[in-house]
Amino acid sequence: MAILPPVTISLPKRFTFISHGDFDFNHVLHLFDWNLEKAFVRIDLRPCCYANYQALSLLVLYIWHLRMRGCVVHIVRATYRGYRESGASKMWRLMGANGLFHVLKSPTENFWSHNYKPLFAVRNTLDFRDALKKAESYTEGFDVEYEKTLRYVLSELLYNTLEHGRHPQIPSLIQFVYYRNNEDISFIIADLGVGIKRHLRQVYNHLESDAQAIRFALNPQVSGTFFLGRPYSSQNNAGVGLYLSSSIIRRLHADMHIISGNGVVHISPTDITERTNDFSWPGTFVNVRLKLSHIKNLSLHKMMSEFREAARKEVTQRQRAQEKALYSLSIKNYFGRYAEDKELAARVRDRYLMPAVDAGKGLILDFDEVISAPHSFLNALISSPIRDLGMSAYKRIKVINASPEIRETIDFILDENTGSTGGLTNIPTPSDAM
User: Fold this and answer.
1) Residue 48 neighbours by CB distance under 10 Å
2) How much is the pLDDT for 187?
3) Strand, helix or coil at 229?
4) N or C: the chain end with fewer CB closer than 10 Å?
5) Closest to 11 (Cα-Cα) out of 71, 55, 61
6) Alpha helices for 69-143 (secondary structure H)
7) How far apart are CA 136 and CA 155, in angstroms?
8) How high is the pLDDT of residue 195?
9) Closest listed residue to residue 76, CA positions, set 47, 111, 53, 35
10) What residues contact 308, with CB distance under 8 A and at least 6 apart?
11) Which helix (H) or strand (E) holds 397?
12) How far apart are CA 402 and CA 332, in angstroms?
């Protein structure tokens, strides 16, 4: 086997997200070469005099990624007997990152960290609980509403990384820094999962950029639980968590950055902006900084009621707009209770369904009182629209009032024409869509 020459990655003097007073994630992301494979890699922390704990936590995920690609990784840091321990080397030890390989191979072990700089691998509900417990310890002595509010935001973000950020071999991470004297808390939640755009494009194939996908995910009832190849296979998450947590962040006068792929969305107290990085992160990470005592008379219940009402109005408006953009076809009215005439199906398809699809409309196929609809009929009726729509057929074609046999046949036609295994079995009716 050929021996590849060693690769050395030296941290710069400053390894932080902030450059000249502004956030610049390229300064960190440019260091990561995601294509390295089966190489000897030296990660040299010694040149770094000033680092950011959240940036260093991304380095942990990157090293895990290298290990999964067959690389031998050696971390070089200043020690008590060699270089004077300071900068990134000291911070690496304080957040417990020396144990990163042990944590990776031991699913019940976690990092041994400094109380105010903890790092957690997030693999399951036990890790989830431990991370929340640590965050709650920082709010002792503050109004109980701070504890509830911080817990809520963290819970939603952790749920997101557990549901959407799963990597088959690499855990997600959360890292806190608590500045007790200033009553500031910063944290990052990061993963190497599928990323926001790839997740959403299972259903919303109009999303072209990572930044556009992140911004779109902030809308209520957009980024709910669905999985690759099986959109709508679960309704456990209604898709409002990111909307609510980002709304709370704004109300707290805090800052949140969401990075996925090469997209960046910044949620600030005054606005929401998006931009594109020069370098990409393969999964998603969320970086938050807030001041615990900035807002007085905080009421989580009042905030949640207000935000949920705003979400309800927004979703209602979107549903009404969608209803105007839907074409509804009653199968019984056109074909009778025994829908078996495939030549008539082709004529109806060409006269009504294809023009509706070309106009950007969704389709509602109502099988109320239809007893029989064989494969040849259904294939003639819907295979062409499905091929034109691709994976968005799961969102734009809604089948209602169909028998299990008819739904199963439609699922098979979808599999044939999209290469998926999801089917329309669990697609909601227009009354509960979105």
Assistant:
1) 24
2) 92
3) coil
4) N
5) 55
6) 87-94, 100-105, 125-138
7) 12
8) 92
9) 47
10) 240, 244
11) strand 397-400
12) 11
The type of residue at 67 is R
Let me know if 431 is exposed, middle or buried by CB neighbors in 10 A (0-12, 13-18, 19+).
exposed
What's the token pair of residue 257? 């950055």
Distance in angstroms (rounded) separating the CA atoms of residues 96 and 116: 12
In angstroms, rounded to a whole number, what is the distance separating the alpha carbons of residues 230 and 216?
Answer: 20
Pick the CATH number of 1-113 from 3.30.750, 2.60.40, 2.40.128, 1.20.140: 3.30.750
Strand pairing partners for 301?
none
What pLDDT is attached to residue 358? 87
**255-267, strands of its sheet edge to edge:** 119-122, 172-179, 184-191, 272-291, 255-267
Extract the residue ranges of the chain whose pLDDT is less than 50: 82, 225-238, 425-434
3-state class (DSSP) for residue 271? coil
State the Cα–Cα distance between residues 373 and 337, nearest whole angstrom: 9
CATH no. for 115-321: 3.30.565.10
Cβ–Cβ < 8 Å for 289, 254: yes
> For the whole model, what pTM was predicted?
0.71
Residue 13: what are its φ and ψ, rounded to 5°? -60, -40
Confirm if 378 and 406 have CB atoms less than 8 A apart.
Answer: yes
Identify the residue whose tokens are 């002595």: 141
